UniProtKB/TrEMBL annotation, chains A, B:
UniProt EC number: 2.1.1.130
NCBIfam families documented for this protein: cobI_cbiL
Protein name per its UniProtKB record: Precorrin-2 C(20)-methyltransferase
Keyword Phosphoprotein carried by entry: no
Protein source organism: Rhizobium daejeonense
Length: 242, 242
């Protein structure tokens, strides 16, 4: 009997925003894997830390974070083989995923290598996008709005077209693209309906109208939400600046 | 001291997919409100049922579901006044929300009436879109894909343009628009990379390639995911039909 592979969505950062199901599986598996940068702590592990026991084996998957590219596939080849050995030995393995495993997550690289060979279950999680809307106190999208999720590394021309076509927009992976994206939103006349959230749901969370961000850069875990039709949104973000 | 208003995301349907935070608040509040149809059970209440105690006061907000329109605002005026009386009396009130409160949720109608008057906290939840991707075993979006969420009631012309512009698409609120949407996807040559999920995460969940759906209608809680570039997706949905 081989083990089961779990992709566990852990939510946006607050350990209390994991699901009962992810909590149950996390507490019971003998092997826990998670992405980790080459230096510094693993964010996924930090979210799960309150629930990890000393008897559980931890397998960090070291992914160089400095380069904002798709990481070398060799990393995932090696990690998949390590996890395969545990699965072959009959141990269930949980891979910890920030947010939701299948919403722009790196879990897909392990999934595509292992799901054909082992029983696999994905446990969906709360995405940072939902948490950002909650923090801003404004619907992400409503009624018959088209909501587009736009990755920050995209070129200005593509980004502009996608923002123009949607009623609501979430720009993710903002990071070092922040100043350029802010300038584009300003040029489109949409700054007044844009909100900015950094490290959502963590103690160091920052929530403010985009117009009030004085920095020219943003951390990797930041998001910009645009709600075009939102007069209520404008009023609320304006009030938040007082 | 007035009470606090909570908007609780309960996730897509499986009671185990609620967060630890929603569970804690749900277990502790004296007053629980939820949307309910004029006939039949409340889906939000069904999700929360295992965690509701006999000592908690329940306030159904009756919203006629038969008409797929924006419900009469008078319903929410009345419900807001009812909840305001509990909040004024110092009772915390939790409003149960299917999925995530701010992802196309009707909670916004109570939020806009009450959040200016009472302390309000939104607890984000797992959306049915994330759960549908998990059920299909395929990333919702990855790398620098643009993901667009397109409500089913939109006209063919708008829907076609939004599908053309995105790398990945989630069509929500499919319901009685199913046959028209399926025909559009076929005309666009995208059927082979489209998956269909009905009543996701519940015991009666159905997951299949769009091409294999024989019915001409779908329940309200159904979703179509399109992943254009997904060769892996195509292989997997093909395998699922064997």
């Amino acid at each position: 009997m081989t083990g089961t592979l779990y992709g566990l969505g852990l939510g946006p950062g607050d350990p209390e925003l994991i699901t009962l199901k992810a909590h149950r599986i996390l507490s019971g598996v003998p092997v826990i894997a998670y992405p980790a940068p080459d230096t510094g702590p693993s964010f996924a592990r930090q979210i799960a830390a309150p629930y990890i026991g000393a008897h559980q084996l931890e397998v960090p998957v070291i992914v160089p974070m400095r380069v904002e590219r798709f990481p070398a596939q060799e990393v995932y080849d090696g990690a998949a083989e390590t996890l395969a050995r545990h699965l072959d030995a009959g141990s269930d393995v949980a891979v910890l995923c920030e947010g939701d495993p299948f919403f722009y997550g790196s879990f897909m690289y392990l999934f595509e290598r292992l799901s054909g060979r082992y029983e696999t279950e994905i446990v969906p999680g709360v995405s940072s996008m939902m948490a950002a809307a909650a923090a801003l106190g404004r619907p992400l999208a409503a009624r018959n709005d088209v909501l587009s999720i736009v990755p920050g590394p995209l070129d200005d021309d593509i980004m502009r077209a996608r923002i123009e076509a949607a009623g609501a927009v979430a720009i993710i992976k903002v990071g070092r693209h922040f100043a350029r994206i802010r300038a584009l939103i300003k040029a489109m006349g949409l700054t007044s309906c844009a909100g900015y959230v950094e490290r959502v749901s963590l103690a160091e969370q920052r929530v403010l109208p985009l117009a009030d961000v004085v920095e020219d850069s943003a951390p990797y875990f930041s998001i910009i939400l645009i709600y075009k039709g939102g007069e209520g949104w404008k009023a609320r973000t304006a009030a938040a600046t007082e």
